[in-house]
Amino acid sequence: MIVLGIDPGIATTGFGVVREESAGQINALAYGVLSTPKDDTLPRRLLSLRQQLNELIQRWRPTESAVEALFFATNLKTAMAVGQARGVVLVTLQEAGLAIGEYTPLQVKQAITGYGQAGKRQMQTVVQMLFSLDALPRPDDAADALAVAFTHLQSSRYHRLETGA
User: Could you give the CA distance from residue 28 to residue 159 in angstroms, rounded to a whole number?
Assistant: First the structure.
């Protein structure tokens, strides 16, 4: 199974592509960010995000996807732009026919570290260990996307065990 994990954003959207091998080992195939020019209009940025995401899907051919759910408390303008970017991500993944898992930051932190209040550095360190990466995954958005993909694989494993599928 190949999972495309996404940490949505308007300026940068983190992505992580991971594959579960038959022996249960999980490998990171690719990770990074999709960026949109801040000088572009919001509609152009959203279109750029969609195009870049489609290119990722075409290149890696994931079988499933996972997206981090929104969690904002302060800046309404930023929250709205990120929400719009998240909408573009969800529609693009749906159009590609991918199953979509959605996970809150708390769920992701618990799946990765066992602690729902883990900090960014702790998350990056554990993600580095889980995927045997040579360095901490950077930027944070990419590390978060790998963590979201890992969370989805863990959730899928549990679901398969529970249902016998």
Answer: 22
**For the chain, how many structural domains are there in total?**
1
**Residue 40's domain is classified under what CATH number?**
3.30.420.10
DSSP 2-57: EEEEEE--SSEEEEEEEEE-TTS-EEEEEEEEEE--TTS-HHHHHHHHHHHHHHHH
pLDDT, one tens digit per residue, over 49-108 is 999 999 999 999 999 999 999 766 566 777 888 899 999 999 999 999 999 999 999 999
Tell whether pTM > 0.70.
Answer: yes
Kindly list the catalytic residues. Answer: 7, 68, 141
The kind and range of the H/E element at 150 are helix 140-163
What is the residue range of 66's domain?
A: 2-163
Report the alpha-carbon distance of residue 53 to residue 101 in Å, rounded: 16
